Amino acid sequence: MDILFWSGGKDSWLALYFYRQEYPETDLRLLTTYEKSTNVVPHQQIEISHIRKQASNLGLSLIMVPLPTNCPNEVYLKEIEQKLAEQDESVRYLIFGDWHLQDIRQWREKTFGEMGYECIFPIWEKSIHDLLPVLKLQPVKVEISAVQEKYKSLIKVGETFNQSLVVQLRHLPEEIDPMGENGEFHTKVIFKELDKNG
Known about the structure:
five-stranded parallel sheet; 37% helix; alpha/beta; Rossmann fold; 198 residues; two-stranded antiparallel ribbon; 2 domains; Diphthami_syn_dom
């Protein structure tokens, strides 16, 4: 069994897509951390009810990890380790949607490696020209769900993340990663089935 760290945004979706290209039959579960006082995934600002609908739509089990507000790193890791240990099958890989931040990848590999888990990164350093068509051709739409304060005049919550927006971002004078990799913005994946069913 493998576990995908699922934020509900485009990076998680892309990681799932490319992971399934290589491991189409492997038992997979999603893991989402969220703020228990608000029932919201911090950073992404996605309600946990939407995450549940995503997991249901995908037909995948969801491991939910409630965390305190402004959760210290040691508490985060303790709660994650406990949830992983509780699984009824042994865990082979932990899967992450990191794209190119080397320090984040190294931290994950070191930290979770010390717990005895191997990490894989299905979209690592892929060309954005390989990633964007996946979002376009799959039965989902991607919306901006949160924006850093200093970029709110340039990127709006609710607007669609697509090729057109990426082109706009690349022509701005401000340095904004086209995938929001540095936290400039976050996204929410919306399945078309979710729209139909509310």
